[in-house]
Design goal:
The complex is a heterotrimer of chains A (82), B (245) and C (133). With 82 residues, chain A is mostly helical. Chain A is built from three helices and no strands. In chain A, helix 1 runs antiparallel to helix 2 and helix 2 packs antiparallel against helix 3. The termini of chain A are far apart. Chain B is mainly α and 245 residues long. In chain B, 70% of the residues lie in helices and 2% in strands. Chain B is built from eleven helices and two strands; from the N terminus they run αααααααααββαα. The model of chain B has no long low-confidence stretch (mean pLDDT 86). Chain C has 133 residues and is mainly α. Chain C has a single domain, classed as Helix Hairpins (Orthogonal Bundle). Chain C is built from five helices and no strands. In chain C, helix 1 runs antiparallel to helix 2 and helix 2 runs antiparallel to helix 4. The radius of gyration of chain C is 21 Å and the shape is elongated. The chains are: A mainly alpha (82), B mainly alpha (245), C mainly alpha (133). The interface between B and C is large, with 63 and 50 residues.
Chain lengths: 82, 245, 133
């Protein structure tokens, strides 16, 4: 009981940090990495809510495919936001 | 301390203090039991769909038509992206040099492990958590790490072209539509499961059409995202030189 | 009391994350930054949909039976997580990825034509109309 409550408190606080850092970062590659960190925080929250179907899809899509997509797009365009 | 960190700490404290005060003032009653509709699904999933997994039962049986239309949206989005990104195969063939032998060998092992886990997710999707969408995404992750390491040109030489991938997607989508349409022959509704498809074959529980849907959906998702990765992995210089534009 | 605190905290955090990512979509200069903010916003909305079906039970388990005979039905009705939002979100995640890939292809095409990803300059180059702040 206490672990699930603790996860429900820690994961949202972690997600605030990553979302804020991702949105305010000027280096887009770092922003993509922070976005992956936000996905991990949300995955912890979803696992605390006991939804394994979503966690499986969400980890693969959000940490794996979104990061790869963003890195490819940044390598084809420009890295820094002016 | 930059301005960014100060605003972040302010956001943290503001959220915590606001939630504390709201809890003390309002003290809301938290939900403590399942909602009515979800209760129906959890109670009846085994009798009505022969699947012990309520989520897959809802995705492909109770709300099967929704999911088939969403697969159509997925198909159109990926086809639109590939059409916008038009690229000749000669341009793809120019990128033939991958990474070193060490990274190639380790990538082979890791990709094989990911693919076997994805197969387990797909083929057990109607019995345990998992199914077509998670399995297809896992296969796409495996191809997403193979393509940059081995270079797109090498893969195209071995016969993995984007046209073939789009063809696989089209075939998977057609099979999905056929599985949905087949019960109409016997005068049943579209996307009928238990009244048309058997619950098990040779003692293997397949939960009617659910395992077929999972298989074809994972094929569609995996080949679609592999095609996207194949197109994205070409460097811009190869594109400019090869297209002749 | 602790349960009520986590309930309010998660609602507050999801609202805050949505606001921050909307700020990123509106005020971000680079199109890629706007795309990253858009993925964060869509993830936040999907987690909010899951949270709408959440309830406090100890232990909370996935809505999956252990065997095909349907044993443990009473336990599952009291302890299973809500399957309906999960089914809706499952498709939403994958479709969202496909649509965002379409947007990413559009950004790359815009960069090829305008040689920049700055949203205002892209509009200036492609349409010839000067954008004021």
């Amino acid at each position: 009981m206490i672990t699930s409550i603790l996860l429900l408190i820690i994961a949202p606080l972690l997600s605030i940090f990553f979302v804020y850092m991702a949105v305010t970062e000027k280096d887009l590659l770092k922003a993509a990495a922070y976005s992956a960190g936000q996905s991990i925080a949300y995955s912890i929250l979803l696992q605390a809510m006991s939804t394994p179907d979503i966690v499986m899809t969400y980890i693969a899509v959000s940490v794996g495919l979104y990061s790869a997509l963003l890195v490819f797009v940044i390598s084809k365009t420009e890295r820094f936001e002016r | 301390m930059s301005r960014r960190i100060i605003i972040l700490i302010l956001l943290f404290t503001a959220t915590l203090i606001a939630s504390f005060t709201a809890t003390i003032i309002l003290n809301p009653a938290t939900p403590s039991e399942l909602k009515g509709l979800a209760k129906y699904y959890v109670l009846n999933t085994i009798n009505e769909t022969a699947s012990p997994e309520a989520v897959t039962a809802i995705v492909w049986d109770y709300r099967g038509l929704d999911t088939i239309y969403e697969t159509l949206v997925l198909y159109l989005a990926i086809v639109g992206g590939l059409a916008m990104f038009k690229m000749s195969e000669e341009a793809l063939l120019k990128t033939r040099i991958g990474l070193t032998l060490l990274s190639k060998t380790s990538t082979k092992i890791v990709a094989l492990l990911i693919a076997s886990i994805a197969a387990a997710i797909v083929f057990h999707g109607h019995l345990s958590p998992g199914g077509g969408f998670p399995g297809g995404s896992a296969v796409a992750v495996a191809s997403m790490i193979i393509i940059p390491v081995f270079a797109a040109g090498t893969l195209i030489e071995k016969g993995v072209s984007s046209t073939k991938l789009v063809a696989i997607r089209g075939a998977a989508l057609t099979a999905l539509g056929l599985v949905a349409l087949l019960p109409v022959v016997k005068g049943l509704e579209i996307v009928t499961n238990q009244r048309f498809y058997p619950a098990s074959i040779l003692g293997l529980p397949i939960s009617g059409s659910l395992s077929l849907y999972n298989l074809f959906e994972s094929l569609a998702v995996a080949s679609g995202f592999t095609a996207i990765a194949l197109y994205l992995s070409i460097p811009e210089e190869a594109h400019k030189g090869g297209s002749g534009a | 009391m602790l349960e009520a605190f986590t309930y309010i905290l998660i609602i507050a955090v999801l609202g805050l994350n949505a606001l921050v990512s909307i700020y990123g979509i509106v005020y971000g200069r680079s199109l890629v930054k706007k795309l990253i903010s858009l993925t964060i916003l869509s993830d936040t909305v999907l987690v909010a949909v899951i949270f709408a079906g959440f309830y406090y039970a100890y232990p909370i388990v996935p809505p999956v039976y252990q065997d095909l005979a349907g044993a443990g039905r009473e336990f599952l009705v009291k302890h299973a997580s809500d399957p309906l939002p999960q089914a809706l979100v499952l498709t939403g995640i994958v479709i969202g990825l496909a649509v965002n890939a379409l947007i990413a292809f559009g950004i790359i095409q815009a960069y090829r034509l305008a040689k920049t990803t700055d949203a205002r300059k892209v509009v200036e180059v492609l349409s010839g109309v000067e954008v004021t702040e």
